[in-house]
Design a protein that fits this description.
- This protein has 3 domains: 45 residues, no CATH class; 175 residues, Rossmann fold (3-Layer(aba) Sandwich), CATH 3.40.50.300; 74 residues.
- It is of the alpha/beta class and 332 residues long.
- The longest helix has 17 residues.
- Helix 2 runs antiparallel to helix 3, helix 8 packs parallel to helix 9 and helix 14 packs across helix 15.
- Strands 1-3-4-5-2-6 form a 6-stranded mixed beta sheet, covered by helices on one side.
- 52% of the residues lie in helices and 9% in strands.
């Protein structure tokens, strides 16, 4: 596209207060400047498109939201810090996520072939197995902000209120490159054939599915569910990448405990393989909480160089917590 045409599109989008059109034109201009070797100019222009930067004149950014940052009522915006390499994942899942990241980073090449980068992912599995951590790691790899949906403010009690709030939120997400994260997705995406659900929930599901279909590929929608069997069948079809996070194996728990020991600079006094054997059957969240409990006590007792006594005590408490009946019987 000629530069004169891009400038016309830029001014036209500002005049119409069209944030999405402005962003597309600006990104096209930046890519052309990069192709010409004008790296400094391209980087300066890119800074104005980063989240939190004013793009144009007063009031331009507020159009998709309605007014003055009201979208903050419906989301938590998080700067991701957890990397993909820091997670203990099966190789298949790791490769799936890396493919999505590559498609997003090279989306312009795909667009030139009339293809779109995949941007809708569904994470399923039992609580504590890393769905939220994986969403954060994906955002970190993409270098996008993580927008976490707040159901306590999203779900309304009046007819049509939830659907309108959902549309409002998705309109805001369209204004930037981001990872939009729906945890416990079954809250919104329930099976419409469930006779126990109201007509309002069914309308919400229908509205949600239509709007997810219309999301641009630079908005990565991630849904996580502890109970995928409750999801509407049409929900599954909307997600191009479906990941089931299994219960961690002993080998994975060993690797996880090793990484925690290194990160916290502590010697648990037990081999990671031994601790993994004791906690086999637990999820990553439970094992992390156990290890951090040992670390806290060891720091307070100045025993981080050898925390064997602390670890032994915590293991006894762990066994009693898992078997409260046996623990009470042993005291009789």
């Amino acid at each position: 596209m000629a530069q004169s045409d891009i400038l016309v599109d830029l001014l036209k989008s500002v005049s119409n207060s069209d944030q999405l059109a402005f962003r597309k034109a600006a990104e096209t201009l930046i890519q052309e400047e990069k192709a010409k070797g004008h790296r400094v100019l391209a980087e300066r222009l890119s800074k104005f498109l980063q989240p939190g930067q004013p793009t144009t004149g007063r009031g331009f950014m507020q159009k998709p939201n309605g007014n003055n940052g009201q979208h903050k009522e419906f989301i938590y915006e998080i700067t991701p810090e957890r990397s993909l390499e820091s997670l203990v994942l099966p190789a298949k899942i790791h490769d799936q996520i890396k493919e999505v990241v590559e498609e997003q980073h090279r989306s312009e090449l795909l667009h030139s072939h009339n293809l779109r980068a995949r941007n809708r992912l569904l994470f399923a599995g039992a609580p504590g197995n890393g769905k939220t951590s994986l969403a954060e790691a994906l955002a970190s790899e993409l270098m996008y902000p993580l927008l976490v949906v707040r159901y306590e403010t999203m779900i309304g009690s009046y007819l049509g209120e939830t659907s309108s709030r959902l549309k409002y939120l998705l309109d805001y997400a369209r204004t930037q490159r981001c990872v939009l994260f729906f945890d416990e997705f079954e809250t919104l995406g329930k099976e419409r054939g469930d006779t126990h659900e109201t007509g309002e929930i069914k309308r919400v599901v229908s509205s949600l599915l239509l709007q997810i279909d219309g999301m641009p590929d630079y908005v990565v929608v991630v849904a996580a569910s502890n109970h995928p069997e409750l999801l509407d069948r049409a929900v599954w079809r909307r997600f191009q990448v479906r990941v089931e996070l299994p219960q961690p194996t002993r080998q994975q728990l060993t690797q996880f405990i090793e990484s925690l020991a290194k990160r916290c600079q502590i010697n648990f006094g037990y081999a990671p393989e031994t601790l993994a054997k004791h906690m086999l059957g637990a999820n990553f969240a439970e094992v992390e909480e156990f290890c951090l409990g040992v670390v806290r006590r060891a720091v307070l007792d100045h025993k981080t160089e050898n925390a064997q006594d602390v670890t032994k005590l915590k293991l006894e408490q762990w066994r009693n917590r898992l078997n409260p009946v046996n623990g009470s019987q042993s005291k009789e």
